[in-house]
Amino acid sequence: MSFEGTLITAIILTTLLFELILNITAEYLNIAKITPNLPDEFNDYYDQERYEKSQEYLRVCTKFGFITTMTDLLFFLCFWFLKGFDVVDTVVRNLGQGPVVTGLAYIGTLLILKGIISLPFSIYSTFVIEERFGFNKTTPLLFIKDLVKSIVISAILGSIIIGAILAFLESAGEWAWIICWGVSTIFILAVQYIVPTWIMPLFNKFTPLEEGELKHAILNYADNVGFPVSNIFVMDGSKRSTKANAFFTGFGKNRRIALFDTLIENYSTEELLAIIAHEIGHYKKKHIQKRMITGILQMGVIFFLISVFISYQGLFDAFFMTETSIYAGLIFFSMLFSPIDMIISVIMQFLSRKDEYEADRFAVKTTGLGTPMKSALKKLSVQNLSNLNPHPFYVFLNYSHPPIMNRLKAISESV
């Protein structure tokens, strides 16, 4: 192996080891912070038995996550150092197709192999862990249908965008990264319309919210804050899980608010309105647009770096490749980029938590429903067996939302 290949191997291995140590430390601290004392704010929401159940759920999920991570890492290292990347490359090259088709076959094969390894863990998580704690409503048939649909949709959309990127990187010369950036941006914007209209209904049934107090309250509120919306849907989330949620998706005419049916069953009109106001707050405060713009700019930087490193011989030496290629370069660059990606992820998590606080303040200010807002968040925490007292370091690395106790305190201060 060349010096450059050895250096890149060292960088990637060091990053993997550093991430592993970082995550294990965070998980250990998170588990160690578990306390049998129920916070006073939850005395009317949690009984001691269910509170202990939430802590056991955290322990089980943490242990399972560790096993999953270690297994993935072991398989990856074995595949890498047994020259699996080169073996797959030799197989797809023997198909005798052009660089784009060969590249799609190469990337697709690697994704299939990764999917095969992760499938048993997904099955165990759904039908053992989630079942044990009373969440799972997914039947084996529904699980298989979801899996097939996901594979087909990913194959179609992935082939379109990855095929286009490979084609431009192969033929567009020094301006290829700009063209790829532009094409990917268009694709991302298009997906914002495609997903809520065509893809999400393939997995869940979206029923217009029936006329009544709740719909009237939501429409009145949306009109008062200048958020015209005609699409309010109830999603049949209960066919997969007892967990509850609500979300806002899409733009323009495709904009829609969706409430899980599990949410509507257990929450008052005021609590639901506070939750909706929080989701609208993300839109009114332009959080969604900011995240999208940030993501697009980040993507531009990544494509530029790809144009610099994609043909770097050291990358291919590090992964024992006999021949160089654009498609393999994409895969290897993503691994080399992982240290920067980890830093970006932590920053984005921090900004996301900041946005959640801002959306909470918006909801409380525009509805005056501070108490129902807190009540709804408490109920969600209990229903989903959320960790009430996560360690700050674990939050720093993994949380896109602030811990529940922090949110309740911030809401009280903003009332």
From TrEMBL:
<dbReference type="Pfam" id="PF01435">
    <property type="entry name" value="Peptidase_M48"/>
</dbReference>
<feature type="transmembrane region" description="Helical">
    <location>
        <begin position="292"/>
        <end position="314"/>
    </location>
</feature>
<feature type="active site" description="Proton donor">
    <location>
        <position position="360"/>
    </location>
</feature>
<feature type="domain" description="CAAX prenyl protease 1 N-terminal">
    <location>
        <begin position="30"/>
        <end position="205"/>
    </location>
</feature>
<feature type="binding site">
    <location>
        <position position="356"/>
    </location>
    <ligand>
        <name>Zn(2+)</name>
    </ligand>
</feature>
<keyword id="KW-0479">Metal-binding</keyword>
<feature type="transmembrane region" description="Helical">
    <location>
        <begin position="6"/>
        <end position="26"/>
    </location>
</feature>
<keyword id="KW-0645">Protease</keyword>
<keyword id="KW-0812">Transmembrane</keyword>
<comment type="similarity">
    <text>Belongs to the peptidase M48 family.</text>
</comment>
<feature type="transmembrane region" description="Helical">
    <location>
        <begin position="103"/>
        <end position="129"/>
    </location>
</feature>
<keyword id="KW-0472">Membrane</keyword>
<dbReference type="Pfam" id="PF16491">
    <property type="entry name" value="Peptidase_M48_N"/>
</dbReference>
<feature type="transmembrane region" description="Helical">
    <location>
        <begin position="326"/>
        <end position="351"/>
    </location>
</feature>
<keyword id="KW-0378">Hydrolase</keyword>
<feature type="binding site">
    <location>
        <position position="282"/>
    </location>
    <ligand>
        <name>Zn(2+)</name>
    </ligand>
</feature>
<dbReference type="GO" id="GO:0004222">
    <property type="term" value="F:metalloendopeptidase activity"/>
</dbReference>
<dbReference type="InterPro" id="IPR027057">
    <property type="entry name" value="CAXX_Prtase_1"/>
</dbReference>
<feature type="transmembrane region" description="Helical">
    <location>
        <begin position="150"/>
        <end position="169"/>
    </location>
</feature>
<protein>
    <submittedName>
        <fullName>Endopeptidase family protein</fullName>
        <ecNumber>3.4.24.-</ecNumber>
    </submittedName>
</protein>
<keyword id="KW-0256">Endoplasmic reticulum</keyword>
<keyword id="KW-0482">Metalloprotease</keyword>
<keyword id="KW-0862">Zinc</keyword>
<feature type="domain" description="Peptidase M48">
    <location>
        <begin position="208"/>
        <end position="413"/>
    </location>
</feature>
<dbReference type="InterPro" id="IPR001915">
    <property type="entry name" value="Peptidase_M48"/>
</dbReference>
<feature type="binding site">
    <location>
        <position position="278"/>
    </location>
    <ligand>
        <name>Zn(2+)</name>
    </ligand>
</feature>
<feature type="transmembrane region" description="Helical">
    <location>
        <begin position="175"/>
        <end position="195"/>
    </location>
</feature>
<dbReference type="InterPro" id="IPR032456">
    <property type="entry name" value="Peptidase_M48_N"/>
</dbReference>
<dbReference type="GO" id="GO:0071586">
    <property type="term" value="P:CAAX-box protein processing"/>
</dbReference>
<feature type="transmembrane region" description="Helical">
    <location>
        <begin position="60"/>
        <end position="83"/>
    </location>
</feature>
<dbReference type="GO" id="GO:0046872">
    <property type="term" value="F:metal ion binding"/>
</dbReference>
<keyword id="KW-1133">Transmembrane helix</keyword>
<feature type="active site">
    <location>
        <position position="279"/>
    </location>
</feature>
